[in-house]
What does this fold into?
Amino acid sequence: MSFGRWLGYENREGDPRALRSAARIGPGMAPMVLALLWMAMPIVAVAQAVPTSITVRVVAHDAKIIGSGVGGAVVSIRDAANGELLARGHQEGGTGDTNLIMREPWPRAGARFDTDGAAGFTASLDLQGPTVVEILAEAPMGRPPEERVRASRTMLLLPGHHVVGVGVVLELLGFSVEILEPSTETEWSGTVTARITMLCGCPTEPGGLWDSDRYTIWAEFVSADGDRSRTDLRFTGETSHFEGRFEGLSAPGASGELTVYVSDDERGNFGMGRLTVGG
It folds into this structure.
């Protein structure tokens, strides 16, 4: 028996009873008929999104966590397959425990970055299935855009399997270099002073935890006429401050581009700061 005949409205030619039965199905029966038809349709399962937490910590190579003191870091998480932005936010907080990070041996499952007040970014992602994500970090946000550093990582996330605690660690290489002298407001006399720190803002000095005796620090000046000069920068006695002087410049009144460089070849950290002088 067909479904229509079972309902009693299939018209069979020459059968007046079928016509009378069909006539008895008025507008009031329509919802019941639709419900029965819906029940007869195949059931399609819809995947439910599962909240999945992920913590990201952005740290400076050979140093500590990049915290609020230097503007923190911006973290973005995207679906690697289609580029959809799943989460974006700001890493804020402290730089972490110096002893755990820099002095004590790192245990395999240690919580060296997961301490009270340590900076990090935590997001909750609604995942409907296994998802490969790309995590991108940019820092320090307190520096000009051209002086910030980026790092990324691609990984698989599974719905409901949280990545928290220490979380996903992204390491940024480099130094922060801020030219203090000359300034754009005053006429330059040839002296160069720069503040040099790790990306987390950690201080540099001879014999310190971040030992500037390992670094090569110098400045280069290219004049408006194309002449190139170089001078070394030395520690001033004030933490993170280094100074040098261009003796051969026709100063005051020199104009051109000044660049300060710092290099730690052993650990692969490099940095530079630029300033247009005069002009």
Remarks:
- The radius of gyration is 33 Å.
